């Protein structure tokens, strides 16, 4: 198979995020570089009482129909994002061959809020009080299953769970499905909605979260010298992927090319990254190898950038060691918080938009880098930069490392830049 034959096109994008529930609002929010973190009423009284929730969208109204009652929050967000992406791609479930359409949606936890609610019901009212919908609502593959039902997709329906790398894993799996000719269209991404007292308390108890309760908006600060942990967010993103030749043949628009994907495992610790970055480095090298790129050809890196001391230190050393030419670096979690299983998919969308607009969003709350962090971080305002090749990093608990390689799609003229976004600067 030639290099051209291995190109996969991103033809559709869909999002539900703390910065906005559509592409334009999301991009404006990301480029504004202002954190979406705020105090959350449901977390009141906890050691960490803030997060990055999805606001400003009526999910039940957006989903519509009678089936909404059987869906947990993460499923509703996934479905809204998937519909956006399919519409953006110019495709229709009424007209495609559903046997050749796959759905791959990464999820970390599933419907934990539904589970907690039913534990209370069991304690208060006994077995008869437990909802018969508990299992289909809480299971992690519910998002992939419901999206497949909605889109009439009869190809593979998968729900990879690689913690915070799940969304990126889904996109890598989608690429494999296309290149193996198992399907012609894949709706891939991730979804997570665990901004609940139980999950927040658990992450806080293990020391993973920022404790800046007096300054939620300043809490998520990737790569900053004074970072102290991440902020939990929620959201979903979906990308429509097709073989580039197929997209071109049907007259579809390639918004970017997914030219490579690499994955590797630390096999080091259940939660802490390998401080030497061995697994992450192998994932980067695999993505570069599959894309056919030399390291010096990478223009931009969308970093995992969690705002935790260990992860950011590992990633900084990785980037400066592999890319001494200092490509630009951004980290969306400063704005969005850490959306866990959705993060890799949301950040893949951000990377596609960076390629398309020729604009790199800034890292929120980054005032100064620690000694030894040799990174070209974009801060304060978006940077106008024609980007041809970019990597998106995703690293998860369990030592999962996934790196996606995106290339700007061939278009006539320079990258398009939205004047409305530039005005933010």
Protein model, in words:
The protein is of the alpha/beta class and 425 residues long. The chain contains 14 helices and 15 strands. Strand 9, helix 11 (309-322) and strand 10 (328-330) form a beta-alpha-beta unit. Helix 3 (73-88) packs across helix 6 (142-151) and helix 7 crosses helix 13. The longest helix has 16 residues, at 73-88. Mean pLDDT is 93; it is low at 413-425.
Features:
425 residues, alpha/beta, 11-stranded mixed β-sheet, two-stranded antiparallel ribbon, 14 helices, 33% helix, globular, disordered C terminus
Strand content range: 15-25%
Spans with pLDDT under 50 lasting ≥5 residues? 413-425
Largest sheet: 11 strands, mixed
Spell out the helices and strands N to C. EHEEHHEHHHEHEHEHEHEHEHHEEEEEH
In round numbers, the mean pLDDT is 93
Question: What share of the residues lie within helices?
Answer: 25-40%
Multimeric state = single chain
Radius of gyration: 20 Å
Give me the number of helical elements: 14
**Shape, per Cα inertia axes:** globular
Strand count: 15
